[in-house]
Each structure stands twice: as C-alpha cells, then as structure tokens.
Amino acid sequence: MMTSQEIRQKFLDYFKSKDHLIVPSAPIVLKDDPTLMFSNSGMTQFKDFFLGYKEPTAPRIADTQKCLRVSGKHNDLDDVGRDTYHHTMFEMLGNWSFGDYFKKDAIAFAWELLTEVYGIPKENLYVTIFEGDASENLERDQDAYDYWKAVISEDRIINGNKKDNFWEMGASGPCGPCSEIHVDLRSDEEKAKVSGLELVNNDHPQVVEIWNLVFMQYNRKADGSLENLPAKHIDTGMGFERLCMALQGKSSNYDTDVFTPLISKVEELSGKKYTGVLEDEKDIAIRVVVDHIRAVSFAIADGQLPSNGGAGYVIRRILRRGISYSYRFLGMKEPFLYKLVAVLKDQMGTFFPELEKQKQLVAEVIKSEEDSFLKTIENGLIRVEKLIQQTIADNLKVLPSEEVFELYDTYGFPDDLTRIIAEEKGLTIDEKGFEAEMEKQKQRSKKDSASKVYDWVILEEKPETFVGYDQIEAETYITKYRKVENKDGEFYQVVLSNSPFYPEGGGQIGDKGVLENAAESFEVLDTKKENGLIISLISGLPKDAGAVFYAKVNAKDRKNTQSNHSVTHLLHEALREVLGTHVEQKGSYVGPDYLRFDFSHFNKMTEEELALVEEKVNKKIKESIALQEFRNIPIQEALDKGAMALFGEKYGDSVRMIQFGSSKELCGGTHVKNTSEIGHFKISSESSTAAGIRRIEAISGDKSDEYFKNLEKQIIEISQLLKSRDVVKSIEKLMDENVSLKAEVDALKKEKAKGEISDWKNAYEQKGDKQLLVKKTSLDAGSVKDIVFQLKKEIPASVTIVLSDADEKPMITVGVSDDLATNYQAGAIVKDLAKEIQGGGGGNPGFATAGGKNLAGLENAYQKALQI
Which reaction does it catalyse (predicted)? Predict the structure, then answer.
C-alpha cells in the first residue's frame, strides 16, 4: 500500500515527466487579494495568469496547494467531522496549462495517471461532462465527450448540469465547463445491488469525486455575461485526501495515514478510543480535532494569527470549534491541541518546510488560545447556570434567545453547549429566536460590508506603469474605470497609464493625493492592487475621462510613510542582533503617523533591550547609509546576496531587494534614498499580541520631531511650575515631602479610627441573642476595614455593616463574627445590599465588601440593612 507521501510524490513526478514545472504551494493565507481571505482552490495563485495580468512562469505547471474552505461561497466547516470526506484544510493536487494543451491532453494525462500509474481499476471510475445550458447559450461539451469515449465506456460518461459541471472562480472572473472523475469504492456486493452510475454526485460517502478537470475558456463579467478569454487554459484539482482514501483501500479519509497518526495521538492524550462511527459524538469530536489542527497550524505558520477580525477571526473560530468539541465529548479540560503540532510537523514538515520552521510558534499560539478559550468556557458555564436558575425561578421552560445569543456573540460561548446544558435541566432554547438574532447579525455585517462593483469601462488597451519609486507626480491618463457603490456612497476606481500612487501592500498603506487637470480635480482616497492592476479610488467621474491628468501623491504623507517603512528594515535587523536570529517579522503596518512591527519572540523585552535596539537603529540613521535598490533580480540571486524572505509571503521569480548596509530584505514598498532622511527613531510601546508574538510601535521622521518638541515644551512648563531649572532634583524633593505628609495623614486617620471604635461599640442593637451595627461614615476603605476586623473580634455574635461615601463613591463593608459565620455569610449579605448601589463585590463568610455606581442608593441599603 502506498503511503500518502508516496502518493503525493508520484503525482508530481508524473507531471514532471510530462514537462510540467513543479512549483511549491502558495501560502494558505492571502494577504494582497481583496476578493479572498484564503486560498480555496489550487488555481488561486495562478489567477493573474488566467486573466492575462501576468506572464506564466512556464506554460505547464504542477503542484500541491494548501487550501482552506471555511467562508464565503466555499464553506465546508459545518460538515467537518460529520462525514468521511469534508475538510477545512486540504491539499489540492493540480496540473495547469496556460495556453498550451487543452481538453485532449488533460483527459489523457488524468486517465493515464489514475489507471496506469496509481492502478485504480477502470471499472471503478465514472466521468461527467457539461450538458450545456440554454439560458447561457452554452452547448454540450461534445469535445470532452469524444475524448473520454476513446478511453472509457460511453455508459460511464454522465451529463452534468451547470451547478456540477461549469466551474466558476466567483461571481466574476475566469470560468468554463469542467469534467469530473468519480471513483466507486464500494464492495462488489454493494455494486451488484446499485450501480455507481446512480450514485455519482449524490453525496454517497464511497462514490466520490476525486478530480475535476476545468477547461478555462470564458471570463464572467460583473453584469453576468460571458466573454472568451484571450487563450484557453487547463485548471485541474484532485483532492489529495480522497485520492489517498481510494488508493489505500479505505472507506473514510480519516482512516488514511494522512490522519491516523494524529488520531493516535488524540487517543493517547484523551484516553478515548476512535471507532470511526459517523454518529458517535466522541468520534465526531476526534475527526473535528484532527482536521482543525491542520487548518489552524498551517494558517499560523503562514503568518495569520487568531484575532477578532477578518481572516484571524476565521482561524480563531476554527480553533475554538476544535476546543469546544474536545471539551464536551473528549473530556479535555486542559490545553492539549498544541501537542498535536509535533505530530503534524513529522508528517508534513518535509514537504511543507514552514511547519518545521514555525513549529514552536504554532504550538505556543495554539496553547495560548486554548488557555484563553477554556477560561471563556468556564466563565460561560457560570453565566449559563445563572440564566437557567433565573428561567426556572420565572417558571419558564425556554431560555430567552437574546441571552443565549449574547453568550455566543459577546462572550464566545458555544450555543450548542448552552443547548446541551439546558436540555440536561429539562429546558430548551428559543431556536427560532436564536436564528433570528443570528440573521440580524449577518444582515448587519452584510450592510457594513455591502458594495456593488460594476464592469470596467476600457478607454485604452495599453499596459499600466507604476512610476512611484522614482517620482510622486506624473502626467497620465485613465486607461479604464469602474463605478463602486458602498455604504459611504458612489465612487470610481481608475487605472492610470502612469501611476505614482503606491498600492497598499507589504504592510504599507496605499497612497492618497489628487488627480487633476485645468478643468477638474478629484481626491484620490486610496490605492490598492487587484489582479495585478494598480487601482486608485477617486471621489467622482471626470467629465472627460479620456483627458490628460496630473497624478500627485500627498508628498508629506509619502515622506513620513517611507521613513517609517525604511526604519522597519533597520528595526528588524536590530531586533535580530539584540534578541537572536529566531526573531522574524510576523506582520507590520506602515503609515505616515507611526509604524507597527510584529515579530516572533517569547519574552517581554526588557528596558535595556529596548534601549539597545533604539540605539542601534539610530546609529544606522546617523551613518547616512545610502539605499541600494535591486529592482528586478532573480529571487535566488537575492537570497544568495543575503536577503531575508518571510514565511507566509508569496514571491515571484523576480523580486525587488532593498539594502541599507547590512540590512537586506525583499520588499516592494517605497523607501528613503538615505537613512539620514529618517531623522530619529523612537519606540512608543512594546507589547504582546499573541503567544510568542511581540509588537513594537514606533515613530520616525516628522512625528519623532513633534515628539521631542512636545517633550521639551512639557519640561519647560514643569520647570516653570517648580520654579527650578533642575527638574529632577525638585521632583525628588516633592516626592520626599509627599511621603512625609502621607505618613502624617495615615497617623491622623488611625487616631480618628480609634476614636470611632469606642463610639461604634456602644451603637450595636440587640437582636435576640445577636448584635447588629449598621453605620454610615465617610471614612476611607482602609480605615473601615481595620475597624470592622477589630469589632468582629471584640463583639461576639455580631454582624457589622458599614456604608461609606468616602470620595463620593458608595462602599458597603460587612463583617460577621466567627461564631455566626456558619449561619450568616458576609458575602451573601453584601451581594444583596449592593443591588441598591448598582454594584457588586464579594469576600468570605467573615468579611466582604462591595462598591457601586449609585451614591444615592446608600440610604436604601441602610434601611435594608436594619432589617437583617
């Protein structure tokens, strides 16, 4: 039986023998594609080739691509764990032809590989072709039928509709008819009962699609119409996990060696045995865990940390789903998913070196997320219990949907866990109400992000040139434009023949400025890159869009932005010198006002380390190091020169290298011509963003000048207030005086408290065989605490309640003598009284305190306390 590693290698070796260039997988996280968060198919990294925006590296390419399908049109998350073949992260084996071979060769290659190289019996295979669609004026794919007829029986060629056999990248973009290959993995007995022909595309777990051959020949426009692409292409995708299932004779992807090492580790850590039963919640949980750990690990290795927004939120959601399942059905109350990273690294680290390189970081981040979410679950359990008790007290049987949704949406507590706990208590949740709350949230999100993008209006079919490295003003004209509508109004995106506007990328924000001529002027609000085009967003549409314009970048913002960008390179180098070569950039933001730099490091930086980094960076700035720019060199040459390449970034064959002395990085951003232009570098803060990730925020250029001017101004003002030029000496003197005065005040407070004690002792009321004191005071919290502790020792069978309004803040303190503490709980008493001051607090049976917001409520609390 072939191992998964051998299966992968045979695929690549086969296509290498057919003159295909074997390329590495692109990162699973897409950083510069506004249309996608993640690579969700094998063709994603080649999109620009299909659209004609870039020249292909080679006419024939093959690879295995890491893919993630958890959002948007392609979302398999809810199916994962409940069947044998859906996954969040999966590998897509693919071969590509860019204007080279087409249907005939694609079909021949696929058939030869499956039947002769892999040895899948021909009688187990079925194929589908596009049956045509009258509404689109698309005819049946007769060519594909004829090519298949030459190698497979005609009764195994099935017509497929537009849903199954017309592949589209999205609402717009490259598309075309496709031909799917399905394999029947059932036993001979089952095949004799029901033909596989009847089960193709019917969600049968053992009659599954393994390969899709897409014949890319159209482009879907925004208005829904189709146009022919300049050249015909081949885009194929074969599910690696399903292929392993077929070749290893298994009935489930999870029974292949893609997953069994991970499953064995989960069994070892949880003490639960995996039996492979579809409906068994324990087995579902194990499938969820081993699937999700792959998705999360690869995303983190590629630079996407869990967070509360965007792609980071999706990764956090996947991870929390895994934690939730393991908590509920595997009894795992402590972090353990992070221990699976080492197993995954051993399985896949050879072919995907990012896992090997980033293993420690990946494990640390996952462990930190587990710690955090397990605390969320524990806190959520307390909230759920309170909600259940309140529902029972109100004689209701259904938990209110708003409360359940708040637990889910605000506190991150899984709704299905709330459902299970409620059912254990004989309650249900308001399912319709909960779904309505979810729908409201979806509609809010859609409204916030809703936009309509129209088709391009092409004025001139000429290449567009970025001139922003050399100039910030340029004579230009609009080659194409399109209208964009969103919640902020109506705008236009334009592509310029010569654009000085840098498009957002590599952490650097997009340039702003103006586009003007003698007749009209438009504000350039932002600049981004999409499908290889530099697109500037402008405030309106010119009356004469074909006229000559002058494009002008906001000079001040550009100057400060490129100062901040250049200094991030110097900062990166300095951090590696001070902290060690384990430091790697994990994210950045570069704008005109400040810079943010995220990097791998497992400890908080000391003040000495921060000072040394600052010193090193400013030394480089003062050395006036000239920029050395290698604008278009082969990537291997740049790496040989010592340039740093970042994990999670996709580099082309040719790259741009930026060098300031010994600092060498691959970078597409704009930079100063000499480090002296940066002025001064100042670190504003150092913090943690995730386990193993630190963040530095800093300023340079004009902002650092402003910082020191403001600092100087403050020192002058302080000096004037102190009436002394020696500010430090004067402040030290004030501090000494303050210590002395504070000691005097404390002594006076104690004297006053002593006087109060004797008065309070005489104020207790006899309540049967017990004594109660309810006292109003303006004494501070410390003095009240001292008095209450002394009184509860000296006055037997007593309850002491003090209501304080010190500093205009309501405070309630309760003391219970030890001989009553079993029957009278100070914490319970203070909790009840605190309702009157809109507050809360707690303590132990003998002593408790509570603060609040409503000072006027002290009177009600006083009257209530008298009734105890």
Answer: tRNA(Ala) + L-alanine + ATP = L-alanyl-tRNA(Ala) + AMP + diphosphate
